[in-house]
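Self-study notes.
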Amino acid sequence: MARRSELFPCDQATLDAYQGRLKQNPVISKTLTMRMRIVHSWLILLLLAAIPSAAQTNTAAAAVNQGGKGASPAVPPAYSNPVIPGDFPDPSVIKVGDTYYATGTSSEWAPHYPLFTSKDLVHWKQLGYIFSKKPEWTTASFWAPELYYYKDKFYVYYTARNQQKVSYIGVAVTDDPAKGFTDKGPLITMGTEDIDAFVFKDDDGLYITWKAYGLDKRPIELLGSRLSADGLSLQGEPFSLLKDTARKGMEGQSIVKRNGYYYLLYSAGGCCGVPCDYNVRVARSKSLKGPYELNPANPILHGNTSWMCTGHGTPVKVDDKRWFYLYHAYNVKDNVYTGRQGMLDELFWDKTSGWPYFKHDNSPSAGDAATPEWRDDFERATLSFNWQWNFRAYTPDAKLNGGKLYLSGNAIKPNTSGTALCLRPLRASYEISTEVANINAALKGLVIYGDDKATAGIGVKDKQVLLWKETDGKREELPGITLSDAAPVQLKIKVVDGWQLQCSYRTGNGAWQQLPQAGSDANFLDGRFLKQWDRSPRPGLLQQGGANEAACFSWFSIKYE
């Protein structure tokens, strides 16, 4: 606040003389006093007019959060869930400076662990992937990556299966997430399964927590251990945080230290597939090592009529000291066909009990986020981050040249389904299309891909347009049609509710022709066999043939209903 002499710039002698004259003449003193009260009132009104109202302040803050000069992620703008649509399980989020980073499970899809950035927790852009190639010690099941930032370095503590097919926790580091992470190998390899890492900094250093004994004939436990100063090794003996004596399941934990308590959030129930009953619970202790008391109001986050199987999230503190929770949930209508999607809700704290809670009757906030269309004209120098592939079944060979994609690959036995480039669907009802620009003996076309033993689609082989499906590794090609010339062929699959596949083709600018043709038993392929336990089926492009029989695609498009 300014001093009086700064507001009224006159010297002290002048003020003293002025006050002396007022004392000698009470009439003048009274008149001036009344006038000064009037002036004082006007000054107050002017000052109040200059101060923005609360509504104006909120409007200005919202404008800043939307972007522009001086943008700040202090308060997320208005949003609808999901904030990261499509298959994005087990999300982890951190805040570094003015930027949020998030990653999630990629399971059997490569590249491994998609990495997103945001300035406001709502508008996310994919930065790339944690790993472009799988670390040498790993084989499959890339689950539950946990981001951490410490001493100017980014860490990721991730779960993967080793050469003996046992899930353990590894660690990787980078100075710049945009350039990928350098793997430092396995960190926790203690039993038949160690998964779901979470790192926490306490007053005396770093700690890591994880889920243990999930495959043993004993209760699951959440364990903890001190981490070395560089975050790359364990120190001392592990200790138990919480034991699943009720046998409800226990995983996906995170810790918040607040007002003298350690709050341990975790997920219980079945996580994946349908039916599932995943939910979020919380316990607290005065000591990191416990004992922990369970919240009598558990679960604090569960499903509703729109979203189900909520869980495995990470809390993050925004600039204005509010807490938000990034977690996953299935859409009730789309469920496994879009997978577990990235959700955001504010975490509140009860002023009386101190326990955390969510609004909306402890369930996800309502919303129906807009779903953008996407088209790839293959004009980039490298593949878009949207494309993924089943790394266990084949190694793709994708070349971009002259606005075309040339796709082939090398199959890994016993895969016979070919090479596919796929993307995460953001809704269960959509339409994909492409143009096949070449004719050869390989099958080239559109695919809905569950895994290498569960595929279906429409393609061109020589001059024949045909449908196929592969169930449990058994391939069936359905009757198709023979083209009269070798002109480019456009293909389309309309997917309804994730499993009804309506397949069509056309040449030139002709009308779309649907297969199976009139007179067939059905006008769609039944794709319910495509769904997987822990990941959504994915639409994309496929080549099945020799490595020297590449498919040539002019473009790819996906539109949502």
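Second protein, same conventions, sequence then structure:
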Amino acid sequence: MIAAGALLGARILVVDDHRANLELLEILLGGAGYTSVTTCGDARAVCALHREHDYDLIILDLNMPMMSGFEVLARLKLIDSDGYLPVLVLSCESDYKLAALQAGARDFICKPFNHPELLTRVHNLLDVRLLYAEARERGQRLACYDMLTGLPNRSLFDRSLERAMQAGCGPLAAVMLVGLDGLKRLNDTLGYVAGDAVLRQCAQRLAQCAPPGSLIARVGNNEFALLLTGLATARAALAPVRRVRAALDQPFHLPHGSTGLAAAIGVAVGPGQAGPDDPASTLVKDAGTALHQGAQDGQDGCCFFTDAMNARTQARFALENALRQALEQGQFELYYQPKVQISSGRVRGAEALLRWNRPGHGMVAPSEFIPLLEETGLIVPVGTWVIDQACRQLAEWGRRSHGALPVAVNVAGAQFAGGAVEAVVAAALARHGVEPGLLALEVTESSLMGDTAATVRTLVALRAMGVRIAIDDFGTGYSSLAYLKHFPVDALKIDIAFIREVASNPSDAALVDAIIALGHGLGLEVIAEGVETDSQLHYLGRRRCDQIQGYLFSRPLSADGFARLLDEGGGLALPAAAPATESTLLLVDDETCVLSALVRLLRPDGYRILSSSSAAEALELLAVNTVQVILCDQRMDGMSGTEFFDIVKDIYPDSLRIILSGHTELDSILGAVNQGALYRFYLKPWDNDTLREHIRCAFRHYWQLHGLADGMPAAPPVVPLPPGEHHVRHVS
């Protein structure tokens, strides 16, 4: 129901060519309380008056000399074709009633009329008109404004931006897009009431920190837009961006406490006047590109649009379109990287790796297209093809003389949705007649942690078929011991990030040792990926890692190349290691003359002597050889002796470590001693007899500590030095 004040204030136009009728109706309506009544004696002026004043009701006489009421009705229809304009027709000709209603009149009353009846009809027509106007206004507001925040929505923002740019809004204008990260997680955790409260507070903060005259809108579920006008330079947009960033960095207040959300910001600056080459919509598109880049840069990222960014966006768009065609056109292929048993050096299987041979571009790096497959959801159909292709290849190899070896296939988290991967695997195995034990699925830790209950059911079903399960990139995701207990897993794969410096970085070495011990303790096979050097291989072998894969043995091979490798019986040549009971001494000094002097001095004592001119080279030697005693110079380029021994102590704690130094450097030496990094410390120049005797004592101490003294031959006798060298001292 419309309020009485609104009803009596409605705009009414009375049209009649008789002055007396106009005065009568004006007095009658005024007496009833209507305050906005206009009279007109010329029917030709009605349309112009209505365009100017937008009347809520027109009382129209049909019979007028200059223009009939029917012609007026026809012209009014053209002005307000989609609206509801009440026209009350007055006529002394009752026969005109049907024709008037068909022409667009909302009501008809014959002259002479009953005054109360007329006022009642006027009231009813105005009531409907104002209800319609109110509903229409509300509908327009719903179509143009966000009901939660009261801000304009994307549709109104786009129209307002277009109008502002056409009118001109200064030398430069900028569109700032703000995206809240974690809103869905907040809704799922605390409910939509909390999420709505955060959005309202965000809208209020943007309104408070935006410059005067800025247009603010909510253009997406978690996205807001600001139009900044009148900018003299692009740098002028920095101040509003900083204010917005500071405002959103503050916690959002909720009934049960406070919470913070990360926000990414994308900004595009352009001419303040829209032109054919710079439409207003371009600013919004560019700001969206910058926002996406800011979100990729990390939490709370802020990014200004650049032309290079646009080129990357276009390239990404082209890449995505090409990816959608790649599967249909058979552009994908599988390569196979061998897995080698460390203990035997024999190939024990392979990992199937997806490759894309894009026409006109050649092989595309997996790091370029696989993340895009996951983002677009194409990973599901492509993953299905990979499983089927791997099974087809297994069946083909099974018919050859060397037989088939197990092949592992990577499975993305999206493939677990709805348990689809179980059906895909079962169908591929049955279609190609492959033994389930020849297929392994490698899944990352993060892909297991979505719907854990459903994932467990799927993995249990796959294991029941006989398919093997491996955790890929172990240690880089959740690394939860609980899921290793509950998930049916057969193997752990150590990520290349830990293998790369395993022979020189104590932290990586400790993690690798822990993963190997954990895997073997749970009865799992442990595979190291990305093995590229002999030192990595020897380190892993000494830690009893089961298998390796990496460029040290072979890069990924085509199906034919892998088959040739098997036909030729290729395997990993393991260098012969020195016996564990052989006394091995490592000498480290960056001066070759000192190394030569030490080798000449100590060779007659029967040790296996290794020498190195740098700490990095020494770490490589330690990874490949079992060394009991290390003799190292203190002052070396790149890394001092105590720094070197700090690393050795953590990776090879059983070794006995001796420093030789021509400088006292008591602080660093004492620190190393106190931390257990040093066994002995000697000053240069040394006494040959004393040094030889102490090194022999060091070896004796080592064998006693490790319970091998009884089984070891007696320490080699001290061999006299050639004449003239017995009392020689070396001066560095």
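Instructor comment on the second fold: The two ends are 105 Å apart (CA to CA).
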